[in-house]
């Protein structure tokens, strides 16, 4: 029975990648060190291939989700590629969305110059510990108007997660 259950799970996870409209995983931006329980994510502001320059890794309006287990160390390597200043801050996943950055929902979960934004080709590192309980957040550009223009993706702390994953829309 255990062999069948494992095979069924493999088939189900494979089908999720093949069925149109289902989520896919994009791990080129994400590294996981199980020994130290550290998730390292490359967050690119103004990434190529986006519908708008107001994007993270090419995604807008919460269409991608960085999912992590509770209590893990999170390192976000922020890379600012766009000619317009951008920043990143983790805010609560609720409406109405603020017009600009303010107080982060998770301590230390923000770049420098949240409201002003960092200039093109700037880099910053965000380091924090994911909360110990499940929760939904947004990785949001705190420059006035940018988040409201769609420059945000989701950040989810999921108690069932054994390792982090970056979930993106299927092509």
Globular, elongated, flat, extended or rod-shaped: what is the shape?
globular
What distance lies between the first and last C-alpha atoms, to the nearest angstrom? 34 Å
The CATH first-level class comes to Mainly Beta
Characterize the largest beta sheet: strand count, sense, and whether it forms a barrel.
Answer: 6 strands, mixed
What is the helix fraction of residues, given as a range?
A: under 10%
- As residue ranges, the low-confidence spans are 1-22
* Radius of gyration over C-alpha positions, nearest whole angstrom: 16 Å
The whole-number mean of residue pLDDT values reads 88
Number of strands: 10
Provide the spatial order of strands within the biggest beta sheet.
Answer: 1-10-4-9-8-6
Along the chain, the helix and strand elements come as HEEEEEEEEEE
What would CATH call the architecture?
Sandwich
Q: What's the CATH H-level homologous superfamily?
A: Cupredoxins -  blue copper proteins
**What's the CATH topology name?**
Immunoglobulin-like
Which structural class fits the helix and strand makeup?
mainly beta
Hey, roughly how much beta strand do the residues contain?
Answer: 25-35%
Secondary-structure map with pairings?
Elements: H1 2-18, E1 23-25, E2 30-33, E3 38-45, E4 65-68, E5 73-80, E6 89-92, E7 123-129, E8 135-140, E9 152-157, E10 165-169
Parallel strand pairs: 3-5, 4-9
Antiparallel strand pairs: 1-10, 2-3, 4-10, 5-7, 6-8, 8-9
């Amino acid at each position: 029975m255990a062999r069948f259950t494992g095979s069924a799970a493999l088939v189900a996870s494979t089908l999720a990648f093949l069925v149109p409209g289902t989520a896919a995983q994009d791990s080129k931006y994400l590294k996981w060190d199980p020994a130290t329980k550290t998730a390292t994510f490359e967050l690119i502001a103004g990434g190529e291939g986006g519908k708008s320059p107001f994007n993270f890794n090419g995604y807008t309006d919460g269409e991608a989700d960085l999912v992590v287990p509770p209590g893990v160390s999170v390192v976000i390597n922020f890379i600012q590629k766009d000619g317009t200043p951008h920043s990143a801050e983790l805010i609560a996943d609720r409406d109405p969305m603020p017009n600009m950055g303010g107080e982060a929902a998770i301590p230390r979960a923000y770049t420098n110059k949240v409201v002003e934004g960092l200039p093109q080709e700037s880099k910053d590192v965000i380091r924090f510990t994911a909360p110990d309980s499940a929760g939904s957040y947004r990785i949001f550009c705190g420059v006035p108007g940018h988040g409201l223009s769609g420059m945000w993706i989701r950040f989810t702390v999921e108690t069932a997660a054994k390792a982090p994953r970056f979930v993106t829309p299927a092509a």
